[in-house]
Amino acid sequence: MGTMHDLYGTRATTDAAKILRREVTAAETLLWRSLRRRRLGVQLRRQHATARFVLDFFAPSRRLAVELDGPVHALRAGADAERDEWLAALGVRTLRFTNDDVVANLPAVLHAIRAALEPSTAPSEGGGQGGGRQVPARRAIVAAPQRDPV
């Protein structure tokens, strides 16, 4: 089990985060445009380094990680599950979306993130140590856009 200090990067993860900030995917760019500058009412960080991993997006005040999964993640579901468990042990919830989810249905992705950022669903301020309701890490499911009949 980790400690609060594990939510902050080591030299290796901080260096990796710097590289990832330069080598951004189209889906990350699209989502970041909607998340930056507190557009959802909460500060989110892009490519946030922790002791073991770099998170695509992280809202420290709500202890929420948002991860975008490209095609390679289908081959590493076990590693992603281990990562989500480690974060959950630190009181961090994880939302996962595919890059295709973001590109095809950004409004639904933003709706799911906005709902997860609501204070009523966030862990307690005490670092997840009792008193607050823990919401386990989960895979976000984005509904297909509904079309009006023509």
Order of helices and strands: HHEEEHEHHE
- Distance, first to last CA: 55 Å
Report the principal-axis shape.
Answer: globular
What is the CATH class name?
A: Alpha Beta
What is the CATH superfamily? VSR Endonuclease
The Cα radius of gyration reads 15 Å
Low-confidence regions: 124-138, 143-150
Helical content band? 25-40%
Determine the structural class based on helices, strands and strand pairing: alpha/beta
Largest sheet geometry:
5 strands, mixed
Q: What's the CATH architecture name?
A: 3-Layer(aba) Sandwich
Q: Please, what is the average pLDDT?
A: 81
Number of domains: 1
CATH fold-level label: Endonuclease, Chain A
Q: What's the tally of helices? A: 5
Assess the beta-strand content as a share of residues: 15-25%
Widest beta sheet: strand line-up? 1-2-3-4-5
Number of strands: 5
Write the layout of secondary structure elements.
Elements: H1 11-22, H2 26-35, E1 45-49, E2 54-59, E3 64-69, H3 77-89, E4 93-98, H4 99-104, H5 106-117, E5 138-139
Parallel strand pairs: 3-4, 4-5
Antiparallel strand pairs: 1-2, 2-3
